[in-house]
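Objective 1b of the project was to move from sequence-level analysis to a structural picture of ligand recognition. The entry below was assembled by the postdoctoral researcher (A.K.) and checked by the PI before modelling. It contains the amino acid sequence of the target and the SMILES of the bound compound, S-adenosylmethionine.
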Amino acid sequence: MPVKDDLPATLRDNHHITEAMTDLYDHYYTSHAYEKRYPKPNQSTLHFLFEHGAREARDILDFGCGNGRYALPLLQATSARLTGFDISHAAIAELSRFLQNHPSANRMRLFEGDAGELNSQGDYDLIMLLFGVLSHVGDHTARLATLRQLRSLIRPEGRLILSVPSIFRRRPLELLEARLSRMTGRAQDTQKEPGNILFTRNIDKEAHQFFYHLYSVGGLRAELLEAGFRITALSPESLLPEWMITQSGWLGKLDEALLPLLPAALGYGIRAVAVPV
Ligand SMILES: C[S@@+](CC[C@H](N)C(=O)[O-])C[C@H]1O[C@@H](n2cnc3c(N)ncnc32)[C@H](O)[C@@H]1O
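Corresponding predicted holo structure:
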């Protein structure tokens, strides 16, 4: 049975992806290259969070919180209890440093490494999965397992707010390369799924390979539905690349002003609110 032969290899591949993403992000945060590339939250995403319940939320989980680019402003602006989780030890270490002497540090708790640790640690009325976290998790099976875990952690009236990279805006060469390798039968394991790509970026002079699943709106909607979520709001995450709008205040403002003209699918990323069904 092809599935039986296939399954262990794909699971192994997903495990390797998580290991590689952990090493990569440990280096990204330790070198401060992430902070330099994305020095602030995307203001429009922050506004989106407030428009969709962040101010009223009592318990917020930031899954893949990184250095707290979004969690920290929410800690500041709300009275919610915050939980941050990331696979990267360096991300959580950096966020812990930001929390030292923070007047509201007692409202934030942090978990790192194994997402299973979040189970039986409470539930949430807002879960954030922001700026491509879901895309790094692995193939469809792995992403579905993550979404189903989040579904089990969300309250019946809760909301999931996520953003994922758009297939129409990102990495056309790598997408073509992945397509060619599927067509010629060279694609292995997780690379057999359309939308999955690998690309290399230098971080602080070291080459690192990123795994990404790129999404269409339809693909995101279907995946969320399979995990027990229904999309209730959609928007583009930005028109320009995230690094540009977070490094320049005026470009960030201009970008936010132009967003209502852009269909969600054509954003640099796709932002969505989803509720449990
Ligand atoms: C592009 S960063 C986004 C971080 C943060 N949400 C932000 O907007 O700045 C992607 C984050 O996802 C984390 N990540 C990657 N794979 C993950 C996984 N399987 N589970 C949880 N987090 C993961 C990385 O460590 C990294 O912090």
